[in-house]
Amino acid sequence: MRRRGMCVPDAHKEGRPPVARPGGPALLLAFGVSAVAIFALTLDERVASVLLAACVAGAVGLLDDMRTLSGPVKVGLLLAASLPILLLQTYNPHPVLPFVGHLRLTVIYPLLVLIAIPVTSNTFNMVDVFNGLVSGFAAIASIPLLLAFVVMGDWTMVAVTAALFLALAGFYPFHRNPARIFPGDSGSLAIGAAYGAIAIVGRVEIVGVVALIPAVLNSFFVLSTIRGFIEHRRIKKRPVKLTPDFKLEASREKDAPMTLTRMMLAAGPLPEGAIVSSFLILEAFAALLACTTFAMVWWS
Amino acid sequence: MPAKPKVLMSLMVIVAASWVILLLSAYLIFAVVTPLAPPQGAPYSVELAYAMGKALLALLIMGAWLYSFYLLRDAYARLTALNETPISSASRQTHDANTEA
């Protein structure tokens, strides 16, 4: 990849060393091969929906990796990633909520599916800012889904979620600090689409949402400060600054985007690895809450 | 070494609070607002008023849920007692502008 010029500088390291990008196609291939095998064995259309959603989002991401797309265009194109779920009708418009039970959302649910995949894709895309973060974050976030499917006895979805988890776990050693490869938008968008699609077709929507709370908060804080969909590389004021000893410190500019990282750095500068560890600890906590939510759904 | 325990604990409190608010909002919308129904045989205008009222209430709850994110962010600064925590909420900006004036 280096010979072909498919490298980008690692902005948080001394000398900004070049790192291969995009790793998304490799990640998608690892997940895709397993998903195709599961589909061949089960002929379950839900597996096809998840795979197609991830492929469409991955293709949009690849386009974005090659020529940066504007925020609204990217969100618009990502609507297409929801279509496999809608066209194959692999959704069930009766989601279950704790203390409420089954809901009847026959009309509104397809609309929610249409926006859910762009939302999850962009949510993962917005946490892809440090070495090893998005792959580690997504791997931890997929554990509550995996456990939920085991309890439900939905073995097809167990296999699909395990395929995603293992693809991420296999990618993580190359992506962790110091990274040898970046997933790029093709990777982060595909991960987000696969995650969202698994939560929808597996009927564990609320568990999926709760596991993503730290990333959702991060996205909300960013969107509320920059007031709109702007491609993250085009945000002029950065939420964090690099210190001379290559640590990250919170920006003191009031109109810089408010991100979870900026909040994490409120107590002082931290090295990149420490920030990623903090994010993963926070995500593990959210995964625990997601498991609790599933228990509440299961027993209510 | 991850971030200081105080910072991590505060962020965990924010995540836990968001979780509680999310479940509470969903409960209020789907278990309290949605089942509201006009008395049987009520005229069409009453049914319409009920439907609009329910939609408005649901929007209000969702709005409050989103607003809670701002409140949580600002509460973070108080929880950590870090005066230098960057805050860009409208209330803080108004406060700063008034102070400068």
Task: Name the features.
heterodimer; A: 300 residues; mainly alpha; 6 strands; globular; B: 101 residues; 0% strand
3D structure, described in words:
- The complex is a heterodimer of chains A (300) and B (101).
- Chain A has 300 residues and is mainly alpha-helical.
- Chain A has a domain at 19-204.
- Chain A contains 12 helices and 6 strands.
- In chain A, the strands form 3 sheets. In chain A, strands 1-2 form a two-stranded antiparallel sheet. Chain A has a two-stranded antiparallel sheet with strand order 3-4.
- The model of chain A has no long low-confidence stretch (mean pLDDT 90).
- Chain B starts with a helix and ends with a helix.
- With 101 residues, chain B is mostly helical.
- In chain B, helix 1 (5-33) runs antiparallel to helix 2.
- Chain B has 3 helices and no strands.
- Chain B has helices at 5-33, 44-80, 90-100.
- The chains are: A mainly alpha (300), B mainly alpha (101).
- The A-B interface holds A 97-100, 103, 206, 209-210, 213-214, 216-217, 220-221, 224-225, 250-256, 258, 260, 262-268, 270, 274-275, 277-278, 281-282, 285-286, 289, 293 and B 1-4, 6-8, 11-12, 14-16, 18-19, 22-23, 26-27, 30-31, 66, 69-70, 72-73, 76-77, 80, 82, 84-88, 93.
Structure in a nutshell:
The complex is a heterodimer of chains A (300) and B (101). By secondary structure, chain A is mostly helical. Chain A has helices at 24-42, 45-66, 71-78, 83-87, 108-126, 133-152, 155-175, 184-201, 205-211, 213-226, 260-264, 272-299; strands at residues 7-9, 18-20, 96-97, 101-102, 240-242, 248-250.
Describe the secondary structure blueprint for this structure.
The complex is a heterodimer of chains A (300) and B (101).
Chain A: E1 7-9, E2 18-20, H1 24-42, H2 45-66, H3 71-78, H4 83-87, E3 96-97, E4 101-102, H5 108-126, H6 133-152, H7 155-175, H8 184-201, H9 205-211, H10 213-226, E5 240-242, E6 248-250, H11 260-264, H12 272-299
Antiparallel strand pairs in A: 1-2, 3-4, 5-6
Helix pairs in contact in A: 1-2, 1-7, 1-8, 2-8, 5-8, 5-10, 6-7, 6-8, 6-12, 7-8, 8-9, 9-12
Chain B: H1 5-33, H2 44-80, H3 90-100
Helix pairs in contact in B: 1-2
